[in-house]
Amino acid sequence: MLRLFVRLVRRPLLPAVRLWRRNIQLRVVAATLLISLSVVLALGFVVIAQVSKGLLDAKEEAAQSQAAGGFAVAQEKANTPATVDGPDATDNKVGRDASTWMNSLVKQLASGGQTAFEVVALGAGTGEQPQPGAQGVRGARASGNVDPTASVPLSLRRAVNHATGTFKTFSEIRYTSGADQKEPEPALVVGKRLTDINGDPYDLYYLFPLTQEEESLNLVKSTIATAGLFVVVLLSGIAWLVVRQVVSPVRMAAGIAERLSAGRLQERMKVTGEDDIARLGEAFNKMAQNLQNKIQQLEELSRMQRRFVSDVSHELRTPLTTVRMAADVIHDARVDFDPVTARSAELLAGQLDRFESLLADLLEISRFDAGAAALEAEPIDLREVVRRVIDGAEPLAEHKGTRIRVLGDSQPVIAEADSRRVERVLRNLVVNAVEHGEGRDVVVRLASAGGAVAVAVRDYGVGLKPGEATRVFNRFWRADPARARTTGGTGLGLSIAVEDARLHGGWLQAWGEPGGGSQFRLTLPRTADEPLRGSPIPLEPEDSRANRARAAADAAAASGSAAERQTADPGDRSPIPPRSPVAGATSVPADPTALPGNGARVVARPAEQAQQEDRADGR
Known about the structure:
Blueprint: H1 2-22, H2 24-79, H3 98-111, E1 118-123, E2 141-142, H4 148-151, H5 154-162, E3 166-173, E4 185-195, E5 201-209, H6 211-261, H7 276-332, H8 339-370, E6 378-381, H9 382-400, E7 404-407, E8 414-417, H10 419-436, E9 442-449, E10 452-459, H11 493-503, E11 507-512, E12 518-525, H12 545-567
Parallel strand pairs: 7-9
Antiparallel strand pairs: 1-2, 1-5, 3-4, 4-5, 6-8, 9-10, 10-12, 11-12
């Protein structure tokens, strides 16, 4: 379920991911957008913090100055001597109690603010209730419909009640309920402990709204956000234009390179200006021109070589036919010749046979080189092809004293292939195995698994030296040039065989060890044009020295573990079971190391056979 969910989530994102991976211009613009956005955000936070700090510092300074003046006026009024007449009779202590005087004081102090601040007076104590035994103001008074107890924080009231001096804090001004009730607004609250006309303590607070500062800060934020968005969009557009000037020539070069690789060698870049991009375009055009000239020269040389091989092969057929007719006449009449002349007639007939085979192989190689080789694939049973090959190689095997055994032919091995070419490959492999097998058995193994079929030819002859498994398919290559060819080979058989395997989309690979024989494996796709992912037969046979040594070591380890279990405490159990011997184990269903062009694994010769190093062997 989790895998299904991940697949459903990834499916709509695949086009975007593919576009992100393939479009460098998009990645650069996106990176520029993210970086510029990060810079603008960081700069905005710094500017807003500085502006906010500056506004609050200025507000605090002005508020403290205004509150200090109000506290001085309030205390001065409380300390004014009593009079009975005069213009200030309303402020005199005569005939007035503390509550009336406090109401008049709050109204008088708030009248000078004109909505710039509000005044709140609270009785001594942390709340509305006065301290036990305290006299004087017993309630809370405020101007402008301010809720005194909700607007003044309890922490500030405690600080004012327990210490002397002026205290300040940030809070919210809350208003009492009514028809025109205002929303709470931030404010700076400044408070101090004073005494009334009777000398009793009370708390006086100034509440300075921060509405203007908040509006100014919001204006700064909106301005920075607008300017930042404009800067980010502008930088993204600039990055798009700048990257486009660099990416467009690169895209043009990539498109022209693809067309060049497709064979359109006349394609060139358009070069304008004298900058670095123009120099790159000129260098690219020069490279394309030189590449076109070299390819044309190589094509002409290859065409001349193919024509030469084809012409020579065809032109030699007519005189070869005449020589063949004359040689046949001489060979038929050799019984009337003296022994030396008769032997010469036999040698002439044999070399003519080899010459005809060489011409046929040269013509076949020229078809591969020219790309004219055609594959006539049809469903075939490889068992029938192997039987025909073995029937043809029986005379040579009897002459060599070799027995050819076939394994894995109990079930049909069907594949879409060209029967003639597959038979030619297998005939070459079987004949080579008989010739180099030194009279020992030759094993032909067939297998099929998944989408692949394979035929392996194993001999136990001289084998291959290290490094020879990759060179054995070279044209005219021989492991020992002094070794004579008993079957009259031309040296092109394995080269043609590997070309036939590639034409099928298959593999032809070799493995060998000195003195331990060799194995050639042909792997073909079960269906034409199907890619190969492995081979049903391992390239290194099970009876190689390395596998036998590994099997013996595993068997010894298993027997040793069994002996230890017999002598050990029955209650002692190893958490890891011993490995079972691999002797006689079946081959793996696919060989993950069987890749095209992968060299065979060659096992070094053991010390007991070091004396055979000077012996002539190989293909």
